[in-house]
From TrEMBL:
Stretches of the chain forming a coiled coil according to its record: none
UniProt organism field: Runella salmonicolor
Protein name from the UniProt record: tRNA-(Ms[2]io[6]A)-hydroxylase
One Pfam family named in its UniProt record: MiaE
InterPro entries: Ferritin-like, Ferritin-like_SF, tRNA-Hydrxlase_MiaE
Length: 196
C-alpha cells in the first residue's frame, strides 16, 4: 500500500472518525504539535549554528510553524475551545528513544533531521486524511493547506541531511527509521485525541 511520503504503515482509517468526535482535543494536541515543531527547529539552529545552510533553511520554518500554532489557536477560539495544558506525546517520545543522542556528531545530526522529517511526514498524512474526510468544510480547507506546508518541511529535513552527509548514508538510516516508526505505530493505541 502506498502511503504519504513513503511511510511504511498507513494510519488506521478509523482515526479520522474518532478524531472528529473529539475535535477540541485534537485541535489542542495539534496546537502543541506546531509549538514543538517550532521549538525543534530552533533547537537545531542552536545546536548546529556552524551549518549555514541549516540556519538559512530552518529560520523561515520556525516562523511558519509558529504561524501554524497561531492558526490552530484561531480555530480553537472560533469554536469556543481553550488551549489547555500540553499533553504527553507518546509517538514523539517513542521516536526519541531510537535516535542517537551521543557519540558521532554527524550521526546525532542525521538522526535529529530524520526524526523531524518522520514527524512531518506522519503529520502530513494525518492532515491529508482530515482534509479529505472530516465533515467540517472549513477544517477540510484548513488541513489541506497545512498538509502542503508540512510536505515542504519534510523535504527541507531530507534535503538538509543530503546536503551535509552522503546520500547513501541518509537513505540507509531513513529506511531503518521508517521501519522503526511503522513498528511504533503498530504498538500505539488508536487515539482520536492525539494528532500522532
Amino acid at each position: 500500500m502506498i502511503t504519504t511520503l513513503g511511510l511504511e504503515l498507513p494510519t488506521d482509517p478509523r482515526w479520522v472518525n474518532i478524531a472528529e468526535m473529539q475535535l477540541e482535543q485534537i485541535l489542542v494536541d495539534h496546537a502543541y504539535c506546531e509549538q514543538k515543531a517550532a521549538s525543534a527547529c530552533i533547537s537545531m539552529i542552536v545546536h548546529f549554528p556552524e551549518k549555514e545552510k541549516l540556519v538559512e533553511v530552518m529560520t523561515p520554518v520556525v516562523a511558519e510553524e509558529w504561524g501554524h500554532f497561531r492558526m490552530v489557536l484561531k480555530e480553537l477560539h472560533k469554536r469556543g475551545y481553550k488551549l489547555g495544558r500540553a499533553r504527553k506525546d507518546e509517538y514523539v517520545n517513542r521516536l526519541q528513544e531510537i535516535v542517537k543522542k551521543k557519540g558521532d556528531r554527524d550521526e546525532v545530526f542525521l538522526d535529529r533531521l530524520l526524526v523531524c522529517a518522520l514527524i512531518e511526514a506522519r503529520s502530513c498524512e494525518r492532515f491529508k486524511l482530515l482534509s479529505l474526510h472530516i465533515a467540517d468544510e472549513s477544517l477540510r480547507t484548513f488541513y489541506h493547506e497545512l498538509m502542503v506546508s508540512e510536505a515542504g518541511h519534510y523535504r527541507n529535513f531530507i534535503e538538509l541531511a543530503e546536503e551535509y552527509l552522503p546520500a547513501e548514508k541518509v537513505r540507509a538510516r531513513w529506511k531503518e527509521l521508517l521501519a522503526a516508526e511503522a513498528h511504533i505505530m503498530k504498538t500505539l493505541d488508536l487515539r482520536g485525541d492525539r494528532m500522532h
